[in-house]
């Protein structure tokens, strides 16, 4: 059964967004061309031992030079939407509006104009992990002043591109950025400050997001009529033993410390989840920290973070089984605060990387959870995908089955659970630089041959079948209108 015939497209609304996603550092290349300043990922990936086989994004998919090829790929799939990110340091080399790089502006103007000229709606992420290195030298996301700097950058983008861009994502996956970048040191900027820096970084990212949303709402929304959100990643967590109260509580804490960390302040209460704050405050006493020293409090002098999202942008990849975990005495870490140990159900197949267990049903469960806990928001699934490693398989039948199963679960969430899902974006349009995995992991609907200067794009079977779903949906909606 083909993907296009096996998905009930009638469930999806006529204006459902069918898209694919990329990120600037992962595809653009041209890292030091035409006035672009360095980002933290340029510095991080140029340090030996950080990335698989010391690979980097200096060239990546070469999308800066090969945008026309990317556009053809998007058109080939028949997408209605395309999510991509701005390279902050390509637009503002030192991260501030003191100097604007005209060639960076011209590049993104071309991308946006080409998309809208083909009736493809752009969804733009302002910062997808690649903070300008010049700002990192000033403290990066640990510094309180980053809020003002990010707001200035965002206002520049709204003023320059907002007449054509109607969907904005402020930040991508702040939980991943904070934990992997400042707790584990596995992502740029490679900081390892256990149990402390990540909460400050997350807090400043939330403050910056809220400031930008309020700026857009006050100064741009009435003319541009766009929407602003923040892309939140989350696994779906289930207790290892549903009959064990400790495991049930641990699974809920896992959700609170991952999705809830950012979703609760924005969509629910204006503050961190109660379990998160109480756990950290209790551990502060145990570890002789001043109350509130690790998990900051939101100031009443700043614009509220509650309600600062016009839709819920969700990145979902996998699910977990979770059990109770007790920290070692004196242990200072995010994991110890969370008190939850994650495992993988052995019945779930693993795709590519070890952490990526395939469980499409988890997406349906997560969508319903968001509906119930976050006041039934409109949800765009802004990333979801299936990894391939080893020899390239253009006839990627496993990925085809993954998309078939996943879209069926999304349709069930809409039809049976009443979840207001407004769009689905596959990760990714292209095989690309997958952060510390380099080019060893491939998520693309199009294969990119990184061994050749031409960086040729070849559609996978999953890309052809995804295109057929989109075409069938468009045919159905056209027919229903007639």
UniProtKB/TrEMBL annotation:
Q: Name one GO molecular function term.
A: beta-galactosidase activity
What is annotated as the active site?
383
- Its GO biological process terms? carbohydrate metabolic process; glycosylceramide catabolic process
Q: Name one GO cellular component term.
A: cytosol
InterPro entries named among the record's database cross-references: GH (IPR017853), GH_1_N_CS (IPR033132), Glyco_hydro_1 (IPR001360), Glyco_hydro_1_AS (IPR018120)
Residue stretches in coiled coil: none
- One Pfam entry for this protein is Glyco_hydro_1
This protein's UniProt keywords: Glycosidase, Hydrolase
What protein family is recorded?
Answer: Belongs to the glycosyl hydrolase 1 family.
PANTHER family (alphabetical): CYTOSOLIC BETA-GLUCOSIDASE (PTHR10353:SF291), GLYCOSYL HYDROLASE (PTHR10353)
Q: What is this protein called?
A: Cytosolic beta-glucosidase-like
Organism of derivation: Electrophorus electricus (Electric eel)
């Amino acid at each position: 059964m083909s993907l296009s015939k096996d998905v009930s497209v009638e469930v999806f609304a006529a204006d459902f967004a069918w898209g694919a996603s990329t990120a600037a550092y992962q595809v653009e290349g041209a890292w030091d061309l035409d006035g672009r300043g360095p980002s933290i990922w340029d510095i991080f990936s140029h340090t030996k031992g950080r990335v698989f086989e010391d690979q980097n994004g200096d060239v990546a998919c070469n999308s800066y030079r090969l945008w026309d090829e990317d556009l053809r790929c998007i058109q080939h799939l028949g997408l209605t939407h395309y999510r991509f990110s701005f390279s902050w340091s390509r637009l503002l080399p030192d991260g501030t509006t003191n100097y604007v790089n005209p060639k960076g502006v011209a590049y993104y103007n071309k991308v946006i104009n080409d998309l809208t000229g083909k009736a493809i709606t752009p969804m733009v992420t302002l910062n997808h992990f690649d903070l300008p290195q010049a700002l990192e030298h000033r403290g990066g996301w640990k510094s309180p002043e980053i809020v003002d700097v990010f707001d200035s950058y965002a206002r520049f983008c709204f003023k320059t591109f907002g007449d054509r861009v109607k969907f904005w994502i402020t930040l991508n996956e702040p939980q991943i950025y904070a934990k992997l970048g400042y707790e584990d040191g596995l992502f740029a900027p490679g900081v390892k400050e256990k149990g402390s820096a990540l909460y400050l970084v997350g807090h400043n990212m939330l403050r910056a997001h809220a400031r930008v949303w309020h700026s857009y709402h006050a100064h741009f929304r009435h003319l541009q009529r766009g929407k602003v959100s923040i892309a939140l990643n989350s696994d779906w967590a289930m207790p290892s033993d549903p009959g064990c109260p400790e495991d049930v509580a641990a699974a809920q804490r896992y959700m609170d410390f991952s999705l809830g960390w950012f979703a609760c302040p924005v969509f629910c209460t204006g503050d961190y989840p109660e379990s998160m704050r109480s756990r950290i405050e209790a551990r502060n006493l145990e570890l002789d920290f001043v109350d509130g020293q690790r998990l900051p409090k939101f100031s009443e002098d700043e614009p509220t973070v509650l309600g600062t999202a016009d839709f819920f942008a969700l990145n979902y990849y996998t699910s977990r089984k979770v059990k109770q975990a007790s920290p070692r005495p004196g242990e200072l870490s995010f994991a110890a605060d969370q008190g939850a140990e994650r495992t993988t159900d052995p019945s779930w197949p693993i795709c590519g990387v070890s952490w990526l267990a395939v469980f499409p049903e988890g997406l349906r469960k997560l969508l319903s959870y968001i509906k119930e806990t976050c006041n039934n928001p409109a949800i765009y699934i802004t990333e979801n995908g299936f990894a391939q490693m080893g020899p390239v398989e253009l006839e990627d039948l496993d990925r085809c089955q993954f998309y078939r199963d996943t879209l069926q679960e999304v349709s069930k969430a809409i039809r049976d659970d009443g979840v207001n899902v407004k769009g689905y974006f596959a990760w990714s349009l292209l095989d690309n630089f997958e952060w510390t995995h380099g080019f060893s992991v491939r998520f693309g609907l199009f294969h990119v041959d990184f061994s050749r200067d031409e960086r040729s794009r070849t559609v996978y079977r999953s890309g052809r079948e995804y295109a057929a779903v989109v075409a069938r949906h468009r045919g159905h909606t056209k027919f229903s209108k007639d």
